[in-house]
Amino acid sequence: MPIDAVSAATETTNVSRARLSENFDTFLTLLTAQLANQDPLNPVDSAAFTQQLVQYSQVEQQIETNEQLKSLLDQAAVSNGAAAVAYIGRNAVLDTDIARLSGGAATWSYDISGAQGDARIVVQDASGRAVYSTAAPAQSGAQTFTWDGKDSAGRALPDGAYRLVVSAEDGDGDAVAPAYSVLETITGIDFSGGSPNLVTTSGARPFNSIRTIRN
Hints:
Immunoglobulin-like; five-stranded antiparallel beta sheet; elongated
């Protein structure tokens, strides 16, 4: 459960309880004044008071239930954080088109099943600028592309995160949406956001980007 959701639930519960307390105090003040000034020949219907008291009781019970739920959410957040730490040091196949160039190599997997002809493969730097491009036959199933870190002019580029963009078309000339993945080692867990994120050599990743975990 995201940490920001737990905080929001806590704030909502606190505000609700404060409002209920204020409204109940006002109700008791009005009730006391009404009873003190009622017409003895036409007394106020006690059933109406009883009904209002029951409604306040039901609201209070609901707030108490919300507080207990918030406690469970807190425990779940702590448990999720502890479970996330267990991923550190594991190799994971992640759904992403970004890989890190290191030691003159960056490797991606991509799938353009259904494409025909040739596919255009482009590598972009962190600013989105195309630094390398090539063509490859369109094949079905997972394909691996390894880049040597050199731009189209043969110049070696610095290590860092680079994005792969594969363009291909099917037999009708419609664009095929590629599926990308990268094998990376999880080096840490980032708890600074609303929910924990994986940290790898090429950046932070959401947990739902994990496709498989490998030893």
